[in-house]
Amino acid sequence: MKKDNNEQAVIDEITKSLNSLDAHPVHIPDASWFEAFVEDQQKKLRKTFIRDVCVFLFVALFILSGLLFTLFQMPYLFIVIQIASIIFVALYSFIRYRKQVAPE
Amino acid sequence: MNEAKIIKQAKKGDHLAFASLFQQHYPILYKYLLKVTMNPDLSEELAQETMAKAIEKLPLFKGKSKFSTWLISIATNKYIDYHRKEKREKDWISDEEAYRKLKWRMESYNEDWNDALTELGKLSEGVRIPIILKHYYGYSYDEIGEMMNISAGTVKSRVHNGLTAVREGLNILEKR
Questions:
Q1: CATH of domain B114-176
Q2: One biological process GO term for this chain (chain B) (predicted)?
């Protein structure tokens, strides 16, 4: 009981001290600042999205053209790459699964 | 216009709706950050980072919680990330300076610098945040756990240990 009272006293003291921080004046920028900030962030997001899509397309085209080249010019290498990919995916999935179920 | 309608407009990309939402919630966000960081400059910086993240993630906001709760959750993670990245001696010194600056500002506004604030400032952010969220903002252990990506049990033990540390600190101060 005494412990509970002590804890409540500490909580009251903390609440009181945090209330005094609330008295600290807040400088709220005007509406035009918020509008400019949002527009600026939206522009940045659009730019990042376009950049990411370009990088994705570039990498995808590079991999696809490499695979098509091996398929028509070096079929044996194509088969080796396919087998290696399957083994890699299977091993990766197994390791991930084992990590998830491993006891802490 | 009510908040739900403004959020709907903002989700469509309306920058005026976003601006209105942020202007409305800025004081809550800043005051929360000031309490957890005890650093006015860092609070402003993190408030801006939080708003930037909110613009990016608003399509994921389902409206299950209040918008202010969602912003507080983003701000909490921004502050935790900031500490993860900046664990260096130099920043510890700048934290100390910011802390002294806040104390000086409070005193210049004739506000008492309470000893509990000093003790709260000594706690790590992982302990200070749950105490503030639980006992000042009234969030449940589950809600705090979701915000910080930790279990409710961990939150409970951090709050308990934090309160014990503050109590011991205050007792030592009283004995002096």
A1: 1.10.10.10
A2: response to stress
pLDDT single digits (tens) A45-86: 999 999 999 999 999 999 999 999 998 998 899 999 999 999
Which element (helix H / strand E) includes A91?
helix A75-101
Q: Hey, what are A87's tokens?
A: 């083994």
Distance in angstroms (rounded) separating the CA atoms of residues A93 and A90: 5
Interface predicted TM-score (ipTM) of this complex, two decimals? 0.77
CATH assignment, B1-98: 1.10.1740.10
State whether residue B150 sits within 8 Å of chain A by CB: no
A26 in a structural domain: yes
Both tokens of residue B112? 């008492």
Q: Give ranges for CATH 1.10.10.10 in chain B.
A: 114-176
The alpha-carbon gap from A43 to the nearest alpha carbon of chain B, in Å, equals 11
Q: Look at A91 and A97; give whichever has higher pLDDT.
A: A91
Query: In terms of residue numbers, what domain contains A18?
Result: 2-73
Residue A98 within a domain: no
Classified as helix, coil or strand, A38 is helix
Show residues of chain B in contact with A24, CB under 8 Å: 31, 34, 40, 102, 105-106, 109, 111
**Which of B7, B117, B119 best probes binding to A when mutated, by most A CB atoms within 10 angstroms?**
B117
